[in-house]
Structure formats: structure tokens, C-alpha cells
Write a structure and sequence with these properties.
Layout lengths: L4 H28 L5 H16 L5 H17 L6 H26 L1 E5 L13 E4 H7 L2 H10 L2 E5 L11 E3 L6 E6 L2 E6 L2 H7 L12 E8 L3 E5 L13 E5 L14 E8 L4 E5 L2 E5 L7 E2 L5 H6 L20 E3 L4 E5 L9 H4 L2 E2 L3 E10 L6 E2 L20
Antiparallel strand pairs: 1-8, 2-7, 3-7, 4-5, 5-6, 8-17, 9-10, 9-17, 10-15, 11-12, 11-14, 12-13, 15-16, 17-18
């Protein structure tokens, strides 16, 4: 122990300086070993070894050691300026953060946006939200956020007339818009023509002055995370809501182009599938009898419930009335939950196993009834009328 208080505080101060020198030498060696010369690396190793062995009860010895080597360690720093060091440290942290984020995205979680209504009402694509309907059926959070985050869709006819056939898309950096003309007056609305068709009746012969054709917002599709890892351990199961790549899948009705699609997995390899009276039926591999899909997974029970926007399965394409298909080995068969508006396996066949990306796990935006773990909500207890009705949203 020091003999008096002054010696105690001096020793304490010098120990702190020694600790800072040791940390600086270790940091320099760890961060810049690849760009320092062999002589500089040896010098740092020597300083670190000596710092460990120095007598920590002798303040003068510690002081001499720190004074002797502090300039040497500092001289090896390629970023001697404090601001430059701060910038470099920030960039190092940023690089690591980006590396972790992209690693997670590539290996485990990937964000995905629902583009269409093919999975509605389980998941929504781009859709129109009526102002009056939002006030009546929306929760407090959706009533607050939707007007702030979604483009306004409002059209009050200024002059009586017909809708011009010249629909003009308008390029915008922030959002897609379309210009229409009624009675010689131009109107600009959010979305492309297929979006506008959801919230404006474009089949009328004449539109009257003062008529309000829409008053609401065009909401972007549900944003969700796709989990990419578990399919390599648990496999892909009947009823999973899965994302896959459409590369090497072709359709006569629409170019696929390798885009990501999201559908519900209906058939596994060896399954035989058919649709009878809007009811999906499956004969599992190795069995002799068909069973309603609703007996095999609760997701199909929702679709067949005819409640809350679900309306069964529509026989079409390779599953038209009286037809059945068998899923080949290493392939899957998928349908949208909204088969009245879904480009799915009925039109382009089977999904190769190598095309599977992952499983939908949770909706993180917008904050609606669908927010949270995907495909866990029961149908709204209302008879199905229109899939796009505000009550179903």
C-alpha cells in the first residue's frame, strides 16, 4: 500500500494510463495488423507483453513505461485525428450491421409485399379502403395511420360525360398514378388501371356532375416476413402459405418472369387433387379415397366456410369440372385462397421443389386485423358477399 494519500492517487492515475496504453496497443494490433509492417506488429506485441509484466506497485516505473511507448503506439494509428477515428468506428459498426442484416435476409428472414388479392382475405394485396367504411369498421390505429401512409383516392365528377377510353399511366418516383378523363375533364388517381377498377365503376355509360366515384385511400399490400430456413428441416406441408420463385414456370394467360408468388400449398408429391362443387378434395399418396381438404388442414376449412370473404375453390384450368391431377415427385401444387382472382396452379401447373423460397410467418405492416402471425385468424362471422368489401377488410 502507498505510504500516503498523494502516492495512492499518483499510482491510481498511472495505472489508468497504463491500462489505456495497453488497450490502445491491443486495438491497434487487432484492427490494423493486416496493414502494419512486420516491425510495427512486433513492436506492438512487445509493448503488450511488457505492460502485462510491469510492476503495478511502482508509479514511477509505470509512468516511464507509458511515456516511452505512448507516442509509438499513437504513431502507428493511420487515423490519428479524433474525428477521423470516430468516422471510421461508425463505418465499421455500419458495415457490420449491414452484413448482419443482409445475412439474416439471405439465410433466414426476407421481407415480402403482397402484390395482388389472390390470397384475400388471408392476406391483402393493393386494395382500396373506403373512408366511410374505415370510420365504421376500422380500429383507432388504422383510422390514424391509413390516411397518413396511403395515397388519397378521391374523385367528384365536375362535368357530366362519358369515361374516355384513353387511360394514361403517370410515372411517379414515389407512387404509381393513372389519369382518366370524364366529360373532357382530367382526373389523377393513385394506382394503375387494375387498381382503379377496384374502386371505380368504369362500365357506366354516363357519369353525372357532382357524383362522388371514390372517397378513400389506396393501401399498399400486406408486408410480411418470409422465413427461409425451416423448409430444409421440417419440409413443406399441405396447407402452408409459401413463397416461391416462378422461374421456369410458364402460363398462357400471363408472363411469369421469375417473380416471387405467394400461395397456399395444396398438393404434395403423389397427391391427387380435384374440385367438386367448390370443395377442394385430395387423395393423399398411398390412399384410395378422396377427402375434403378441410379435414386435412384448418386453412382449407376457412376457404370452404363461405364466411368473411372466403368463397370456396373455383374449378378452372387443369382443375376444371370433372378433371383431376396428380402431383409429380419433387413438385408441389398451390392455389390462392381467393380462387376467383388468382393466377395459380390451375393455370400453370406444378412448382419444382428447387423454386421454394420459404414460409410466410408474420405481417408487420399495416396494422390491421391481419397484423401478427400469418394465417391464424378465423373468418369474420359474416356471410361472404364481395371479397373487396370494407367489412371484410
Amino acid at each position: 500500500m502507498p505510504n500516503n494519500i498523494a502516492e495512492y492517487w499518483k499510482l491510481r492515475k498511472e495505472k489508468k494510463r497504463l491500462k489505456e496504453l495497453f488497450k490502445a496497443a491491443c486495438y491497434r494490433y487487432a484492427c490494423d495488423r493486416d496493414i502494419l509492417s512486420e516491425k510495427e506488429c512486433s513492436k506492438l506485441e512487445e509493448i503488450m507483453d511488457q505492460a502485462k509484466d510491469i510492476n503495478r506497485k511502482n508509479a514511477d516505473e509505470i509512468s516511464d513505461f507509458v511515456d516511452m511507448h505512448a507516442d509509438s503506439v499513437n504513431a502507428m494509428n493511420p487515423l490519428r485525428n479524433k474525428t477521423a477515428r470516430s468516422v471510421r468506428n461508425f463505418l465499421d459498426v455500419l458495415a457490420v450491421a449491414f452484413g448482419v442484416a443482409f445475412g439474416i435476409r439471405a439465410l433466414y428472414l426476407q421481407p415480402f409485399k403482397i402484390p395482388t388479392g389472390s390470397m384475400q382475405p388471408t392476406l391483402f394485396g393493393i386494395h382500396y379502403v373506403d373512408k366511410a367504411g374505415l370510420e365504421k369498421h376500422g380500429n383507432a390505429l388504422s383510422r390514424f395511420l391509413i390516411p397518413l401512409t396511403s395515397p388519397r383516392a378521391y374523385l367528384k365528377v365536375q362535368k357530366t360525360g362519358e369515361l374516355s377510353r384513353q387511360i394514361v399511366p403517370v410515372n411517379s418516383f414515389f407512387s404509381e398514378k393513372t389519369q382518366i378523363n370524364i366529360g373532357g375533364v382530367d382526373y389523377l388517381l393513385p394506382g394503375n388501371f387494375s387498381n382503379i377498377y377496384q374502386y371505380i365503376d368504369c362500365t357506366k355509360e354516363e357519369y353525372k356532375q357532382g357524383e362522388v366515384l371514390c372517397d378513400g385511400w389506396l393501401v399498399t399490400g400486406d408486408h410480411l416476413f418470409v422465413e427461409r430456413l425451416s423448409i430444409y428441416f421440417r419440409g413443406i406441408k399441405r396447407g402452408d402459405v409459401a413463397v416461391f420463385n416462378t422461374e421456369n414456370i410458364t402460363s398462357e394467360s400471363q408472363p411469369m418472369g421469375g417473380f416471387y408468388y405467394i400461395k397456399r400449398i395444396v398438393g404434395l408429391p403423389g397427391d391427387t387433387i380435384r374440385i367438386d362443387g367448390n370443395i377442394l378434395k385430395i387423395r393423399k399418396c398411398g390412399e384410395t379415397e378422396f377427402r375434403a381438404a378441410s379435414e386435412l388442414h384448418p386453412g382449407f376449412a376457412k376457404t370452404d366456410s363461405m364466411r368473411g370473404g372466403y368463397h370456396g375453390h373455383i374449378a378452372d384450368g387443369i382443375l376444371a369440372d370433372g378433371k383431376e391431377i396428380t402431383v409429380p415427385e419433387n413438385h408441389y401444387f398451390a392455389l390462392g385462397d381467393n380462387t376467383s382472382n388468382s393466377l395459380d396452379g390451375r393455370h400453370w401447373g406444378f412448382i419444382p421443389r428447387r423454386n421454394m423460397i420459404g414460409l410466410a410467418v408474420n405481417v408487420f405492416w399495416p396494422v390491421t386485423r391481419r397484423w401478427g402471425i400469418t394465417d391464424t385468424r378465423q373468418p369474420i362471422n359474416e356471410p361472404t358477399s364481395l371479397p373487396y368489401s370494407m367489412q371484410i377488410q
